[in-house]
Amino acid sequence: MHDQLRDLGRQIVQQEDQKNPEKRSRIWNCKEILGAIETEQMKKEVVALDLDLRKSYSDFVIKSEEIGRFKSLKYLKLNGEPSWNVVVLQFSNNDFIDDSKLQSFVKMARKLKVLSLKGCDKITRTPDFFECPNLESLDVDRCSNLREIDGSIGKLSCLIGIKIVYCPCLEFLPEDIGDLVKLEHFTIQRCDGVKRLPESIWKLKSLREVHFSTGWDSYLANS
Question: Which architecture, in CATH terms, is 86-223?
Answer without folding.
Answer: Alpha-Beta Horseshoe (3.80)
